[in-house]
Structures are given as C-alpha cells and as structure tokens.
Predict the structure.
Amino acid sequence: MMVLRESIIMKIHYGTAIGALFLTVIHIMMRLTQDFHESLAYENVIANYESVGYALLLELLLILISVHGFNGLRVILFEMNQGPTYEKVVTVGCLAGMAALIGYGSRTIIMTSMGMT
Amino acid sequence: MATIHPKLSDELSQTVVSSTKSVKIKIKRSNPNVNSEQKFDDFVVPIEKWTTVLDVLLDVKSHLDHSVGVRYSCRQASCGSCGMKINGKPGLACFTKISELDSDTVTVEPMDNYPVVRDLAVNMDRMINNHKKVMPYVIREDSEIDAESGIREFLQSPENVDKYIQFSSCIKCGLCNSACPTMAMDKSFVGPQALAQAYRYIADDRDKGKNKRLKIIDESHGIWRCHFAGSCSQVCPKGVDPAMGIQLLRGYLLGIRD
Ligand code: HEM
Ligand code: SF4
Ligand code: FES
C-alpha cells in the first residue's frame, strides 16, 4: 500500500524533525523565563494555554511530533516484518494513531485556551 | 589391501614437506535440504606465507574431505564467487591470506543474510534479482550503431568517468549485502549492492534512465531504509563505497543535486 512516494514521506519526516527540534527549543526557553516550580503552578499553566501565541506553538508542536513519531514508528515496523497485509495494517494503524493523537491533543489545547477547564 | 593413488600420495607429501607452519580451519557445515543440523568440522592444513583461505579450503577438499561445499572460480578476486564469513568478518576467501588473519585458528562460515545451499555456498538470488531490478545498463533511445551515420561512439570526458568509475568495480560478490543490518531485518530491502549500481548508471552521462531508476528505488523498502551503518563499504573487497553511492542517490531524491 503506497499512500505517498517514499521520498515525499521522508522529506516530511526530516522537515517535521527539524521543526519539532526548533519549537521544542523555544518551548524550553519559555519555561526558563521563570523558576521551574513557578512554571508548573496551576495558574501559570492555564495562563500559558490562554495566550494565543503559546497555544499555537503547542498545537504546532503536537502536529509535528505526532506526524514524525507515527511515521518513525511505521519505518521501524516496516523493517521488523514485511508482507502486503501487514504493511497495510501498519500504514492504516499509524495514520489512525496520528489522527487520534492530534485530535485528542487539539481538544485539550482548544478547550483549555478557551477557559473550559 | 588398500592402495593410495600414486598422484594423491605425491601431492600429500609435497604439501607437507615444503611447509613449516599449519593452521586449524573450522568449517561450518550444514545441508538445509537434508536436515537442520549445523556443526563445525576442524582440519589442520599446512600453510605458506602466501596461502589464502581458499587455498586452505581446496587443500581440505583435495586431501581431507572432498564433500566440503564451497563456491569459487577465478581465485583472483574477480568473479565474486567465494564470499564467506572469515573469523566473523565477511570477505573473499581467495583474497584473504591466512598470514594476515594473525590467528592459529580460522573459522569460516557462510555469508549472513543469504539462505545456505550447503556448507559455505549460499543462494544469491535475492541480490541478483535486486541488481536486475535497478536496470544495470546504459539506457537511451539511440544506439552506437546508426543506419545513417554508421558506427559512432558516445564519448565521455575523464571527469565524467571519475563520477562513477569506482562503482563499476563491483564484482557482485554480495559481501556488502551480507554485512548490512537492514538486509538482516528487512527481507524486502533492495540492498547496498543494487543501490550502488543504480548510482553507477545514473551518474554515467551516456545514460538517460535516471528517472526510471530513481522511481524504482524510491519505495517503502528502497533507498530510505538505509540508516548509514556503513558496514557495506567496510567489507567491499573492490574499494566500492556503496554507502556513499546511497547518499549521492539521496541527493537526487531530496532535490539537492541534479
Ligand atoms: C515520538 C517518537 C519518535 C519516533 C518513533 C521517531 C522515529 C524516528 C526514526 C525511525 C527516524 C529515522 C528515519 C530514517 O532515517 O529512516 C527519526 C529521525 C529523526 N528524528 Fe525522530 N522519532 C521520534 C521523535 C522525535 C522527536 C521528538 C524529535 C525532535 C524533537 C526527533 C528528531 C529526529 C531527527 C532530527 C531525525 C533525523 C535524523 C535521522 O534521520 O536519523 N524525533 N526519528
Ligand atoms: S559493492 Fe563491493 S561488496 Fe558489494 S557486491 Fe559489489 S564488489 Fe561485492
Ligand atoms: S574465487 Fe573469484 S572472487 Fe574469489
């Protein structure tokens, strides 16, 4: 089962990896603007979600890491076993996992940023 | 009373008299067509400074046990038949001297990542099929023999030859594929031998088959399953660097070279 040409998938894989690395650095740097225990205080976490810029950063990070992670898992599983049925199950399973993780994570980000806690 | 064949006794005495040293060779024996038994047989054989692993195996076959299964032909690192694992490392038996192994015992086993036919001989269908799959020949519409202009040559500059010449030294011994960790895991992987040959023809400026070949290797068990372990290039007896060929091919597919 071929969804996309493998070179396109791998361009996405490397692109999401670099993007995720970059956004993770920003994410960590923003954590460092205050003490660690302060940063994890309930009000501060909620305030972060409620800031549109930060919520967008989290959403983007969620998408990049979900796409990269589930494609990475697909690559690993393709090397562990082969066969048309198996590969179809792996491809569909990874796409479903990717969609589910993005869906559930987005739900959390959107609800929290709208104050529905 | 048993008599020794005069020629055989001659050979026996000759090898022993001219030699002062010997080596113990442990040969992995199996015959999967008959049963799943695997064992090592040990033989002690006289050696000289220049004796190769293949010489030792042929000595064993001539004088001690003619049933040892080994594939060979040229005895000079050109035919690619005698690949095997020598003291754990893939190499050509005819191109590995006992003296360079620095060991009193030499263990020989069939190459990894290929089904064993018998003893040291393996079935190389997978490599040959993948090699064919990448179309290892110059592809173009016109020919050097032309109805109008007669015979002409497709000329190349020395600079262009430099781009692929090392890859054309491949003798299809299959050692690179036997050393590759992805080959061990992924039975559909195209392998370093075929990928190096895909590069060899794509980099040839007489060839017009680039897009066809790139499409063939750009699939889920193609070029992207290489993770640059580099073991293919370490074991190649002909100085081919398949790992580099693979990275150069990736350059075409990522659009950073044309
Ligand atoms: C969530 C689980 C993850 C999995 C299962 C995963 C899997 C993989 C795999 C299999 C590769 C190799 C691709 C190949 O060469 O064929 C890879 C490459 C890469 N990953 Fe991940 N990854 C994960 C998370 C991450 C994260 C969170 C980052 C960075 C923030 C990251 C950064 C990279 C980078 C930079 C590469 C490129 C280097 C290379 O190709 O070896 N990965 N990943
Ligand atoms: S690239 Fe080297 S190791 Fe691989 S088949 Fe060719 S000659 Fe043998
Ligand atoms: S016998 Fe031909 S390569 Fe060794």
In short: Chain A has five helices and no strands.
